[in-house]
Amino acid sequence: MPHAPEKRSNAPVFWLLFGAGGTLSALFGVGLILVTGFLAPQGIGISADALSYENALAFTQNGLGKAVIWAVISLFFWHAAERFYLTLKDMHVFSDTGRRLLTYGVAAVVTVATAGLLLAIGFNQTM
Amino acid sequence: MSERRPYVRPMPRDWWAHRPFRHYTIRELSGVTIAIYAAVLLSGLVALLRGPEAWDAWRGWLASPASLVLHGALLIAMLWHVRTWFQILPKTMPKLILGGTPVPQRTITLVGTSVAVICSSALVAFVLWRPF
């Protein structure tokens, strides 16, 4: 009798998202907040024009720019989701399904929504 | 007939709110601020899609005192989250043995934190010296 295929766990896929999010935020999080929260909006060391609509659009319509934005937003959400899920579990708040929806569910929705926004913004035709 | 009555160490439901676990709980909750920062970026993406006026309104908010206070808080939380991340790293990774001797936890934390400082500094330097 042939063996039924081994049921594989989907956990490693999520560990990859958590690990990538944790590492990305650990390595570049402080630099990112400094750039987008202080230097660019205040025009410190960067021309005040850097955040103009045209520049922001050009960055977002670039394939590499899209990849960076998608990775940062979605992976940061996955990392926060894992930390928050485990803390809620420790605190015994909500049911396990509720906790998963509130954390991993939100991260999944944000991942898809960010991809949708990036596609809607489109690609630079001149590239 | 004897009944087995093992000792069960009492564990209050709010153990996470008391020492020594409180420190860990606060550390873990600082991770939520990373999602708040990502949400700020996401709102910028929505503004960009809606057009130049929405984008300029978002940019105006980003330069406002309220945004500065928020980003100040996010920066402090991120700094602490990163520092504790590399303090936890040697405790969660397999023991690292180089040349027959285990690498001390302090060294792993120091190397990890240094790499993070270099990466974040490189990002800021790249943005500052890039001709816009």
UniProtKB/TrEMBL annotation, chain A:
GO annotation, biological process: fumarate metabolic process
InterPro entries the record matches: Fumarate_red_D (IPR003418), SQR/QFR_C/D (IPR034804)
Organism, as annotated = Rhodomicrobium udaipurense
- What is an example of a Pfam family matching this protein? Fumarate_red_D
Q: What is the lineage of its organism?
A: Bacteria, Pseudomonadati, Pseudomonadota, Alphaproteobacteria, Hyphomicrobiales
Span-the-membrane segments of this chain are 12-39, 59-80, 101-123
Q: Which GO cellular component terms, listed alphabetically, does the Swiss-Prot or TrEMBL entry include?
A: membrane
Which NCBIfam families does this UniProt record tie to the protein?
PRK05470.1-1 (NF003977)
Q: Which UniProt keywords apply?
A: Cell membrane, Membrane, Transmembrane, Transmembrane helix
Official protein name in the record: Fumarate reductase subunit D
UniProtKB/TrEMBL annotation, chain B:
Superkingdom of source: Bacteria
Which Pfam families would you find in this protein's record? Fumarate_red_C
Cellular component (GO) terms are: membrane
* Regions that span the bilayer: 29-49, 61-86, 107-129
Q: Which InterPro entries match?
A: Fumarate_red_C (IPR003510), SQR/QFR_C/D (IPR034804)
Q: Does the entry feature the keyword Secreted, yes or no?
A: no
Q: Which UniProt keywords apply?
A: Cell membrane, Membrane, Transmembrane, Transmembrane helix
Is Iron there in the keyword field? Answer: no
The entry's protein name is Fumarate reductase subunit C
What phylogenetic lineage does the species belong to? Bacteria, Pseudomonadati, Pseudomonadota, Alphaproteobacteria, Hyphomicrobiales
